[in-house]
């Protein structure tokens, strides 16, 4: 199961190489973020916090994401492996950090978010069909959500090419719906002229509101890195995923800021009526504003775009998570079953089915416990995102530390920017953890401690416990992992020459 024997090859895990190009990889990255859903549920919350400075918060929240994207790009150029953060952190900091931060944290965060994506996709689709009673039924929504999980698992099982083709239509619908909403909102009578003051980073009144808004924005961008898990199946695996990562993040920030400007111009940030400061509007900004901007018929199309957005992200998650597990297994850090690939479709067959079932089980269990508990589980993802993004940014600077004197480009792109992004992310982790301890943060608490904090930090601590068991099962990885993870990746001397 470990990979010390035999020559290392860039595509040695049974996946289909050279099967997706740059455009398809960008589509997979955009779809994994669920842009229509993300802006719909986050814009109002950011506006509640900082008012008309929501576009500024979106831009500032993008900065550490962009810096982290540079880290992902440089690490992928040197070590294109579908295990991504697992391999990179193992190589930089050792098997304990790689397994817990780059492996477990990413896997558990994705499974949690997939549960809510399935639920949102089911509820919004039922609402789009006019089945309001069904959309209000927890049982019906959960049942439809489980069916959606089964559907996307089937598509993911059949291969990344099929998933990418499906995503073209899904991403296209989302971007078209957001563009139509924005253009018409600006043109409506009574719309306020946009102001450059809305993107003034120095206009925030206090650190607390600024930090809270930026933390909310971390979630809105999260997911683009899923595209890099397909690196061993892309054309030019060392370069295409990194380029797609930067391109997808830039497309996202332009889309989000444009939509935020349009919504604020049309509705304002007041606390009554359609204002984004109204809690009823904040809960689903697009769902509330789209019918007023576009009319009922086209407004329903935006609702469909939100549903499609959630399902598209669910599909990318169902495709990406098994590839992380496949890499961990191939490198001897998980049971051998996760490394099994389908002989025809060349996909991680066992892992795809396993995580599909696991997502459905987690969804049902959290729903049975409490709808509030499921909501807090989603909020806790911000901790997990900041944790593994931050460590990966530092891993980039550390891995390339001996090359930083080669040129000013290397110093900036491989060292300064990734390290700055990593430190920003870890600062966000500490700040959000501090805020989440408050029992009033989220909807649940235990013993005077916020349920969001317990779920977020608890997930990491649970991973540490599982890792202790894994060390007894896979001692060779935890002994030799730092050197052996390169066994199924492009050899570093070849990647260095290509750079």
CATH superfamily: Amino acid/polyamine transporter I
The CATH topology comes to Amino acid/polyamine transporter I
CATH architecture: Up-down Bundle
Q: What portion of the residues fall into strands of 2 or more residues?
A: under 5%
Subcellular location: Cell membrane
Transmembrane segments: 20-47, 53-72, 92-114, 134-156, 168-187, 207-224, 245-267, 301-321, 349-371, 377-400, 412-434, 446-470
Organism: Streptomyces lateritius
Keywords: Cell membrane, Membrane, Transmembrane, Transmembrane helix
Furnish the topology, listing elements before pairings:
Blueprint: H1 22-33, H2 35-50, H3 54-78, H4 85-93, H5 95-128, H6 132-135, H7 138-157, H8 160-187, H9 207-221, H10 240-267, H11 279-282, H12 285-294, H13 296-330, H14 349-369, H15 371-379, H16 381-399, H17 408-436, E1 445-446, E2 449-450, H18 451-473, H19 475-484, H20 492-498
Antiparallel strand pairs: 1-2
Main location: membrane
Membrane topology: Multi-pass membrane protein
InterPro entries: AA/rel_permease1, APC_superfamily
Describe this structure in words.
It is a single chain. The protein has helices at 22-33, 35-50, 54-78, 85-93, 95-128, 132-135, 138-157, 160-187, 207-221, 240-267, 279-282, 285-294, 296-330, 349-369, 371-379, 381-399, 408-436, 451-473, 475-484, 492-498, and strands at residues 445-446, 449-450. By secondary structure, the chain is mainly alpha-helical. It has one domain (22-372): Up-down Bundle (Amino acid/polyamine transporter I). A two-stranded antiparallel ribbon has the order 1-2. A hairpin with a 2-residue loop joins strand 1 and strand 2. Helix 1 (22-33) packs across helix 8 (160-187), helix 1 packs across helix 10 and helix 9 crosses helix 16 (381-399). The chain is globular. Residues 1-11 and 490-498 have low confidence and may be disordered.
């Amino acid at each position: 199961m470990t990979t010390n024997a035999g020559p290392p090859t860039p595509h040695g895990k049974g996946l289909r190489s050279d099967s997706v190009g740059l455009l398809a990889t960008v589509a997979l990255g955009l779809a994994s973020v669920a842009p229509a859903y993300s802006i719909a549920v986050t814009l109002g919350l950011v506006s509640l916090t900082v008012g008309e400075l929501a576009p500024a918060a979106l831009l500032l929240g993008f900065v550490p994401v962009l810096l982290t994207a540079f880290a992902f790009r440089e690490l992928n150029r040197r070590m294109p492996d579908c295990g991504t953060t697992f391999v990179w952190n193992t190589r930089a900091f050792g098997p304990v950090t790689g397994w817990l931060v780059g492996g477990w944290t990413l896997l558990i965060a994705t499974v949690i978010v997939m549960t809510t994506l399935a639920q949102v996709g089911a509820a919004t689709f039922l609402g789009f069909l006019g089945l309001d009673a069904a959309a209000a039924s927890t049982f019906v929504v959960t049942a439809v959500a489980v069916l959606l999980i089964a559907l996307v698992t089937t598509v993911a099982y059949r291969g990344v090419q099929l998933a990418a083709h499906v995503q073209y239509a899904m991403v296209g619908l989302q971007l078209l719906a957001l563009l139509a909403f924005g253009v018409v909102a600006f043109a409506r009578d009574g719309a306020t002229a946009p102001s450059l003051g809305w993107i003034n980073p120095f206009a925030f009144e206090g650190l607390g509101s600024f930090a809270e808004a930026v933390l909310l924005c971390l979630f809105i961008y999260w997911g683009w890195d899923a595209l890099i898990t397909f690196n061993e199946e892309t054309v030019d695996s060392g370069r295409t995923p990194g380029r797609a990562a930067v391109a997808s993040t830039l497309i996202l920030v332009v889309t989000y800021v444009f939509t935020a400007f349009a919504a604020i111009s049309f509705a304002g940030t007041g606390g009554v009526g359609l204002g984004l400061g109204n809690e009823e509007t904040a809960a689903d900004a697009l769902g509330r504003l789209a019918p007023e901007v576009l009319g009922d018929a086209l407004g329903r199309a935006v609702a469909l775009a939100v549903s499609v957005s959630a399902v598209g992200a669910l599909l990318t998650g169902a495709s990406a998570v098994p590839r992380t597990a496949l890499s961990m297994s191939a490198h001897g850090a998980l049971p051998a079953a996760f490394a099994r690939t389908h002989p025809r479709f060349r996909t991680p067959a066992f892992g795809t089915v396993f995580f599909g079932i696991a997502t459905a089980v987690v969804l049902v269990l959290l729903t049975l416990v409490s709808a509030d508990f499921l909501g807090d589980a989603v909020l806790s993802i911000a901790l997990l995102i900041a944790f593994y993004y931050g460590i990966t940014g530092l891993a980039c600077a550390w891995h390339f530390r001996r090359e930083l004197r080669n040129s000013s480009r290397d110093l900036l792109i491989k060292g300064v920017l990734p390290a700055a992004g990593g430190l920003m992310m870890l600062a966000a982790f500490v700040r959000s953890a501090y805020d989440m301890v408050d029992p009033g943060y989220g909807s649940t608490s235990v013993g005077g401690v916020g349920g969001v904090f317990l779920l977020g930090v608890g997930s990491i601590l649970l991973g540490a416990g599982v890792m202790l068991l894994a060390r007894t099962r896979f001692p060779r990885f935890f002994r030799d992992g730092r050197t052996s993870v390169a066994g199924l990746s492009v050899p570093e001397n070849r990647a260095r020459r290509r750079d």
